[in-house]
Amino acid sequence: MTAAPPPKTLYTRAAALVRRIGVPSAVLYAALLFDVVYTTQAALDDNGPRFVDFGLLPGFFAIVACAVWAQKRAAVAGVAGGGVLVFSTLFIHAFHIPPYSSVLPKVPITEVVAGVLMVYYVTRRARAGVAFCVDSFLVVAGLVAVFGRYAGVSEIDSGTGSQALLFGLLLLAGAVAPAITARDRSPRGRPRTRKLRRVNELAMGQWPLMGLLGFALLFEFGYTYASNARGFPILFCSLVAAFISVLSPRRPADAVLGIAGIMLVSTVVTPFLHLRYDYPMPGGVPFVQIVAAMGVVVNLTRARGLSSSWPRVAVLSSVVALAAILNSNGPRGLQTDPQNLSLLAFAAALLLGISIAVGLMLRSRDSERTTVVQSAVADAQTAERMALARELHDVVAHHVTGIVVQAQAARMMAEQKPEVAVEAMARIENAGVEALAAMRRLVRSMRGDAPAGSSEFSEQATTDLGADLRKLVEGANHGVPTSMHLDLPPDLPHEVGRSALRLVQESLTNVGKHASGATEAFVVAEVAGGELHLRVTDNGRETAHRPAGGSGGYGLVGMRERVALLKGRLSAGRGPDGGWRVEAWLPLAAGEGDE
User: Residue ranges of the Signal transduction histidine kinase subgroup 3 dimerisation and phosphoacceptor domain (predicted)?
Assistant: First the structure.
């Protein structure tokens, strides 16, 4: 039974959308959406002239278009993106539009993400000399955007300028380094995609966490600018924590200890940096480290369950408690108020409970998905075994039965009519060659060189059922003269025709094996009332001795399976005249969906 498809939840739909457009494009569009909402809010508030902030939107959409274009024409799009940054800066400076700061001062997050993506695509796909020139132009355009959007030189202090250069250098290195490792170095021009595939799989599984970390880092960059570089050590710890959290699915247990160590360093360093008011830390822990810790707990609980995770979670909780005591703005530097500590403990327990619940939910979903996959694999293996069994019985047994019948006839007629024996030996040879070819095709299917259960059909059955039936009867391997009545349309569904051929073949094989004294067989194949009607009859009588070659007892079983797959009907038994009668009705509509 085929497993039911998973329900289309909001998460699965979002994951499918991210998979379709790609993680880089999803991040870019998310940044654009954030900037559009933020700019709209700023344009409609009472701070400064109304609607003037809408002047930033054309630059946002233009730089996003260049970043998307860079996925196909990296160098040209990079030059266009640099030009957009320069002209946007001139426009902002001329009309006194106040841009907000993100990772870089006076550069909104959309322009930062678009610039990083363009540098990455240019470095990865353009030729070395072209990539160097275009990246240099993008760097210059970025510097123009950073320093050209201030009203005057006096507004730029040394701390802001040095931080902008430092963060810009980090962004440039973060875009260029992976792009260089992904560049094509093979002589045939084939890109090395194995590492990129691993990174992409990791990103596809972690994109909600990466999005939350990205927004949290956006605010922490702003806090770092406000603290005049005193918050840079905390920002560095947050970046390391975010990196560990994203990679935590590979080694979740070690990742929890790594996050705990980073948080401990940040907790110990914070009192010496005097960041009480310039660097907000809820509960004494920066935003990014909180999100990173929750992500690591989710991944650990998802991988190992709660019973194996609690010792490391306890270590992480102890570090969080120490941070709350040291850095949550107590009256004398330390937080000792029982009421405040209880509130912080409740908030930490709530976040921890949410993380554990999400991890257990994902673990349950993974277990259910594994069960569904195993069930589907077992069903596929069973279906393949059944298809191979039907092929072995219907095709190979048909030829072997013909060989046995012809050999018996040759032995009986050898002394009276030697020429009949010679003809029988020729038919035995032909049947043996056909049986050997059928066995080879079946072995090829079992080895995976062709789809099991379909190779024999595709190589022996054609799209003309009438021609296949005539060839089958003319072969006369079953040893009983056979006549036919065919009334078949030319557009018979292929799946129905193939199954009909096997049903007639197995019926004639049974005639040769079981119809004692049969002198004729009759095959009818006609279409009536939207169904293919098959009838195979003989005038023999029930055999009193063991049939030639024995009987495996699977002939009717295989025939019923084939008919059931097409939602048809099968009837088999003694006819009114004493012979055997097999009838099948196959709906023509059953084969249309299999083409």
Answer: 384-448
